[in-house]
Amino acid sequence: MTTPLLSVENLSVSFDTPKGVVEAVRGISFEVGQERLGIVGESGSGKSQTGRAILGLTPGRVSADRIEFDGIDLRNAPARTMRNIRGRRISMIMQDPRYSLNPVMTVGWQIAEAYRVHTNANRREAKQRALEMLVTVRIREPEKVYGLYPHQVSGGMGQRVMIAMMLIPGPDLIIADEPTSALDVTVQLQVLAILDDMVRDRGMGLIFISHDLHLVSSFCDRILVMYGGQIMEVLDTGAMHRAEHPYTKGLLNCLPDLARRQETLPVLERDADWLLSRDGAP
Amino acid sequence: MTNPPATSAPGLKEWLLSDTPQSAAQARCQRLYLAWLSFAANPIAMLGLAIIVVLVVMAAAAPLLTGGDGTEQTLSNRLQPPSGAHWFGTDELGRDIYDRIVWGARITLYIVGLVGIIVVPVGLFVGTVAGYVGGWVDIILMRVTDIFLAFPRLILALAFVAVLGPGLENAVLAIALTTWSPFARIARAETLTIRNAEHILAAKVQGASTARIILHHVTPLCLSSVIVRLTLDMAGIILTAAGLGFLGLGAQPPLPEWGAMISTGRQYMLDQWWLATIPGIAILTVSMGFNLLGDGLRDVLDPRSGGSS
Amino acid sequence: MIKVEGLEISFGAGANQVHAVRGASFDVARGESFGLVGESGSGKSTVLRAIAGLVPNWRGAIIIDGAALGRKRPRALHKRLQMVFQDPYGSLHPRHTVNDILKEPLIIHGMDDRETRILKALDEVGLGAGYRFRYPHQLSGGQRQRVAIARALILDPEIVLLDEPTSALDVSVQAEILNLLTRLRQERRLTYIMVSHDLAIVAHLCSRIAVMNRGAFIEEMSSDQLRTGTPEHGYTRQLLLASKGYDRAAIDQFVEFD
Question: How many separate domains does chain C show?
Fold first, then answer.
């Protein structure tokens, strides 16, 4: 790993509800370089809130000792700086493209516009770049797809369009929050291959947030396993079988395995001690 | 605005927020309480609620708040400006305007209440049936709705009153006839979004009849947006009623209807301003109260307009 | 027990017509557990919904215990055939408590002893009486799916249709729900037809599996065949490969099947 692009120290996110304060993220710390970092956890583990807190996109209260991106402190950055960073330097890909694309604009126009917002390119240059970008995300007939509206493209193609839109300003870091969960397995892998190539060819950093430990372990370089707003364990890919934390082991075991027949699946037993003992640990 | 639980018994809040309700009644109370909490957090909505509460109290306690029933004439006392004896002055027949405003609250509530009671079931019925059954039923019901929607409300109400004859009951009927159509539209739109929801399919798989699905599954989900629309429409209903009263087609003299009061006060506008102004302020305040209440209710009840669901 | 023959389903009309299911045929024996696998748009859920009576226009034959189903279904049939839906957040009415939800089928079919039956159903799916008066929003995804399963079982059906019952759940909860479904099938001798996009889940719960693509049945095999031998059809092999995780080299070999 080279010098970190982003470093986060002691990040917490909390929400006020009628029943009191809920802590979604409790003091986690990590660094991301030019690599594929996976954040894995079940619902309520705080994985999505972590991704959003980095970009200041969570409605909750965020506190941290440090959120530093390429020498810039994101904690108290003025709104102007944050706008410049969001999209141009750090992009975010959400789960369902249908909610993230504007339904009344063609997808091509939206990609071109994403480019024009962050550069001073004219319309023709932007269109040219957008078409190139569609080729990069392996859309077969870019000219045709450029003129389609979001409801006319399939889920897989919509997610590729989203990725094209997020990649066109040339960000240094991508935060992908369950970018493929709504897609079929084969399409899912094809979309991941695009992200993978981007990281490799352009030296980007990728934070890949997912509930699917199986998928993340085959895709990412390093994995943070989150539970209850804390990091349970940090694993290198390939070292999954050396996972030590009972939570990680439990997650791996409770998946049905195609290779062998089981009558009943092992059930994950949660332990309250997991949260207390590791408070504030890296 | 502070929340009531601060002052209530210590066990009540736990009972209301408990994760394991013990009875259906407790579960319902809990839901109401949470809705109330988010409603009470909105001071503007609470202002609206306060205005409506004052209106209801005025109407209920009218005999206690006034000396008469607002119709006694004291001709020697006519056109008195506001004073200690007559807070809002007296009108051209020497009737106390304060008394008439207080008694008029009953008429206003009578109109909006009755219109609501007629309009909500009719609108819900037409809308949910059209939306759920679809096909020809939908086309016919919606074209009828469109006809009623096409006319300006006051004009149509005028036409109905002209046919039915002037009077308070007929004014209510006329307003109801001109008000139900948007409710049918809303209920239909809401029904279309939920008719293919999995919980409706689940009810079908259990063998529930169409009538049962509409009544037990679709209607409760349409109810909140219809109620929100009703409170927002209350202002319009009050103004239409006042308009009919103003034109002499609503409540008949000597009933202290606010619109009719403005109408007669108009002749004295330049010299005795209070005759028309005071009922005008009353109409304005109550309309505003319903509107603010409706806005607040929408934030609480309508899951689509922000907030947590 | 269930026999489906030459099932054809299309939606829409004219140029926009979508042929969702093209000639599906299979049969399921009593007490068997049958799986339908495919990607989105393969028509697998549509087949299930046609059996449940939720699709108005279908051609072909659906036969249950020798009796062919028509357009209109007798109420008694609903007692024998129940369904669990994919989305536990959408399949429970948001304004009904668990008690209301479980009481509904009992009212529809005029069954008495409601109190006992509701408590027994809650107990069977591993939820205590403490959950009886909660609203769906007060339950986790797994608890909601347990309520949905309790609702399907409270009428004591013979056949349960499962439409991706765990795809919206966390993996640890998925394991619990799959175990529950396995246990209930053994205890009550239920017949399952399950739809899923996940080969591993179908292979875990079902003994026989049919693979669907673009509305057509591609091949049928036992789950042991899927486990051990390689499936015959290229499409199934590709699905199997994809379910093994990310492999950059393999992805470039993916093709589209028509």
Answer: 1
A99 touches chain B (CB under 8 A): no
**CB–CB of C175 and A268 under 8 A?**
yes
B window 86-145, beta carbon within 8 A of C: none
Task: Please report which confidence band the pLDDT of residue C163 belongs to, taking 50, 70 and 90 as the band edges.
Answer: very high
> Does a structural domain hold residue C89?
yes
Give the CA distances from residue B219 to residues B29, B129, B226, B272, C54, in Å, rounded to whole numbers and listed in that order: 20, 10, 10, 51, 21
Range of the domain at C239: 2-251
The structure's pTM equals: 0.86
Structurally, chain A folds into a number of domains equal to: 1
Dist. CA C165–CA C167, nearest whole Å: 6
Interchain pair B206, C155: CB under 8 A: yes
pLDDT averaged over chain B? 86
CATH number of the B44-301 domain: 1.10.3720.10
**Would you state the structure tokens that stand for residue B165, as one six-digit string?**
């004859």
Rounded to the nearest angstrom, the gap between the alpha carbon of residue C213 and the centroid of all alpha carbons in its chain is 17
C-alpha radius of gyration, chain B, whole number: 23
| C77, C78, C95 member nearest B220 (Cβ) | C95
Q: Is residue A142 part of a domain?
A: yes
Q: Which of C32, C113, C27, C93 is nearest to C64 (CA)?
A: C27
Mutation choice for B interface testing from C48, C79, C80, C95 by most B CBs within 10 A:
C95
Compute CA B102 distance to the chain's CA centroid, rounded to the nearest angstrom. Answer: 18
Range(s) of the domain holding residue A147? 95-170
Per-residue pLDDT, B7: 44
User: For position A276, what pLDDT does the model report?
Assistant: 61
Q: A79 Cβ partners below 8 Å, 6+ apart?
A: none
Task: Give the domain CATH number at C153.
Answer: 3.40.50.300
For residue range B259-268, what is the model confidence (pLDDT) as tens digits? 888 888 888 8
Angle between helices B219-246 and B97-133 (to 10 degrees): 140
Q: Which residues of C touch A257 (CB under 8 A)?
A: 200
Which residues of chain C make contact with A215, given a CB cutoff of 8 A? 245-246
Q: Give me the sheet containing C191-196, strands edge to edge.
A: C81-84, C159-163, C191-196, C33-37, C208-213, C216-222
In a domain, A268, yes or no: no
How confident is chain A (282 residues) per 10-residue block, as mean pLDDT?
82 85 90 92 89 88 91 87 87 79 90 87 90 86 90 84 87 89 83 88 91 88 92 85 86 84 84 64 42
Task: Look at C93 and B309 and tell me if their CB atoms are within 8 Å.
Answer: no
Question: Is C242 within a domain?
Answer: yes
With an 8 Å Cβ cutoff, the interface of chain C facing chain B consists of 49, 52-54, 73, 75, 77-79, 81-83, 85-87, 90-95, 97, 99-100, 104-105, 108-109, 130-131, 133-135, 137-138, 148, 151, 155
Q: Which of A206, A240, A254, A268 to mutate to test the interface with C (most CBs of C within 10 A)?
A: A254
User: How many Å lie between the alpha carbon of A187 and the closest alpha carbon of chain C?
Assistant: 9
Give domain status of residue A154, yes or no: yes
- Cβ distance B199 to C91 less than 8 Å, yes or no, reads yes
| β-sheet bridge partners, residue C211 | C37, C219
Which pairing describes strands A230-236 and A173-177: parallel, antiparallel, or unpaired?
unpaired
Task: Report strand pairing: C67-68 vs C58-64.
Answer: antiparallel
Contact assignment for B216 to C104 by CB distance below 8 Å: yes
List C37's β-bridge partners, or say none.
C196, C211
Q: What are the tokens at A236?
A: 């290198």
What secondary structure does DSSP assign to C79-100, as a single string? HHEEEE-S-TTTSS-TTS-HHH
Portion of chain C with pLDDT greater than 90, in percent: 58
Does B294 score more than 80 pLDDT?
Answer: yes
What is the distance between the alpha carbons of residues C88 and C146, in angstroms, rounded to a whole number? 9
Please say whether the beta carbons of A48 and A1 come within 8 A: no
Q: List the domain boundaries for chain B.
A: 44-301
Q: How far apart are CA B223 and CA B228, in angstroms?
A: 9
